[in-house]
Amino acid sequence: MQDLKGKVTLITGGTKGIGYGIAEALLNQGLKVVITSRSQTAADKAAKELAAKTNCVGSIIGIQADVREFQSQAKAVEQALNTFGQLDVVIANAGLGHFSSIEDLTIEQWNDTIDTNLTGAFNSIKASVEALKASKGYYITISSLAGANFFASGSAYNASKFGVTGFTQAVMLDLRKYGVKVSTIMPGSVSTHFNGNEPSEDEAWKIQSEDLGELVVDVLRMNPRTLPSKIEVRPTTPPSAKK
């Protein structure tokens, strides 16, 4: 079992939802964490909250970075290295969704979805690949079951997540020779603020962000000889399955 204490993780979109849950879980395991957001205010606020919740002051920083822009992501990687001296794990989590019939989907919505979800995953690994090769680290993308199952009004989101799933598997084959492990996690329904959702007690049946944090810990602690390259995660009992 891998010892994670002291390893350094960069999580894109780490100020809320899945990214926040993963950051909390990793801090509790003794890792140092860098979270990014398009807003420095949001990044600082989340980092302060997480430090207090986990009693890990000095082990987390928040950085303003936009995954849609390579240079912005490269600066985030540089800041992580300058702050903590190494980079062991990169989690490409930042994402958004625009859901509309193709007749109504705008060009701006298409570009925003692809640039954030898919190009953002590319920029994250492109900016950090040399650091991960040096540490024989781990690159994880957060895809979706929508990256394997299409649905009406999902053309932009499906395209981005199908792309993330395929992209990650190809990167896994590219980097395994350097000792870099690459996985994609594909959650189903998660109780977060994604796409304007408001989590509530009615969503107790959904995957919770802390569940995905626990999963990431398990993946990182796995013996290096074994690679769970693509992991589908879904609620055990969705409302449609209840009698």
Automatic annotation (TrEMBL):
Q: Which SMART domains match?
A: PKS_KR (SM00822)
Instruction: Identify the residues that the record assigns to the Ketoreductase domain, covering every copy.
Output: 7-194
Name its GO BP terms in alphabetical order. Answer: monocarboxylic acid metabolic process
Q: Which Gene3D superfamilies match?
A: NAD(P)-binding Rossmann-like Domain (3.40.50.720)
Query: Which Pfam families would you find in this protein's record?
Result: adh_short
Q: Say which domain of life the source belongs to.
A: Bacteria
Q: Which family does it belong to?
A: Belongs to the short-chain dehydrogenases/reductases (SDR) family.
Put simply, this protein is called Ketoreductase domain-containing protein
Species this chain originates from: Winogradskyella arenosi
